[in-house]
Design brief:
The longest helix has 25 residues. The chain is of the alpha+beta class. The strands form 2 sheets. A 5-stranded antiparallel beta sheet has the order 1-2-3-7-6, with no helix packed on it. Strands 5-4-8-9 form a 4-stranded antiparallel beta sheet, with no helix packed on it. It is built from 1 helix and 9 strands. The protein starts with a helix and ends with a strand. It folds into 2 domains: 31 residues; 108 residues, Immunoglobulin-like (Sandwich), CATH 2.60.40.1930. Helix content is 17%, strand content 42%.
């Protein structure tokens, strides 16, 4: 009788582990529910907001974006050198294009061109920023 109870406990435990693993692969509670505003992230030195110049692009559509760069206190950061990289960590691939900052628009705003998302899902964009406060990489997460 005890072996039947042990077997039932083990089976129940395995079922719980399977459910937890499944939710973890899907993104579970860490996955943002949807955009409450434009994609943004804050590091120790910089706060980044990324917005499409027009409507949010469709999958596979190339659009220009505007990156707003500020210090955490809200001061605009002009004259920064910004390199862009990223990809889909869950799929283990990078971006399908090589986006770059093409213009300093002033007021801490920069035009980003060449950004395209080849499929729906969670994307991470890493902005390597060099400006007067110092170098820092800030990662922005987008769900497309």
């Amino acid at each position: 009788m005890k072996s039947v109870q042990r077997l039932a406990l083990v089976a129940g435990g395995l079922a719980v582990l399977a459910i937890v693993a499944f939710l973890g692969l899907r993104g579970g509670a860490d996955r943002p529910a949807g955009p409450a505003g434009p994609p943004a992230a804050t590091g120790a030195l910089y706060a980044v907001v990324l917005e499409p110049q027009q409507a949010m692009p469709a999958i596979g559509e190339m659009k220009d974006w505007v990156l707003t760069l500020r210090r955490p206190d809200g001061t605009a950061v002009d004259g920064a050198a910004i390199a862009i990289d990223g990809g889909m960590p869950a799929h283990r691939h990078g971006l399908p294009t090589r986006p770059q900052v093409t213009a300093d628009l002033g007021g801490g705003r920069y035009r980003v061109e060449g950004l395209k998302f080849s499929m729906g899902g969670r994307w991470e964009l890493r902005f390597d920023i060099s400006a007067a406060p110092g170098p820092e990489t800030v990662t922005v997460v987008l769900d497309m």
